[in-house]
Amino acid sequence: MKATISIPENLNEITLGQYQHYLNVSKNLEGDDLAQRTVSILCDIKLSDITMMRLADVREISEHLNLLFSMEQELETSFNIKSQEFGFITSLDDISFGEYVDLDKYLNDWETMHKAMAVLYRPIVRRLDDKYEINEYNGSDAFCDIMRFMPLDVALGSIVFFYRIANELLKATRNRLRVAQAFTYLSYESQKAEIENNMMRKSMNK
Length: 206
What we know:
It is built from 7 helices and 4 strands; from the N terminus they run H-H-H-H-E-E-H-H-E-E-H. By secondary structure, the chain is of the alpha+beta class. The longest helix has 54 residues. It is elongated.
């Protein structure tokens, strides 16, 4: 008896939920045990079916799946889960305090990544060409479970994009602080020189 298997060609064919399950199950696995779980979870095939496959095939498929994660993922501003279209938060500059707090809480743990995605992506309620409007943010609970079914490449792309923007903002803030400190230092040196000059004049006038 042969097992039929559908092998993903890109991360768009793997869901966020599958990857979360994979990370949870594979924590302490290595070698062929890890390869078996990798193929089982990411190809959505029963472990009992894996045992009927050639060892060489399991290893080859596992290596193929690992290579998919070496590809850089770009930001996808929208995607569909069944009939519902979700859109990326339209302006990170205008992010609310609640959105920021939840992202800070959920983005650092893959077990809660579906909740982070429910902050970054929300149902599109109005669209005109490339412009769209998404639901107001009222917490992640309403859509976090459905986000487990989002394409993994979309999730990874949004994470990379968010951290890239955050790092750029951090660098810009640091640069502004350095400029402010430089101006403060120059101002101090200028005032110090003026005080010293005044003291010298007074000393010469005595």
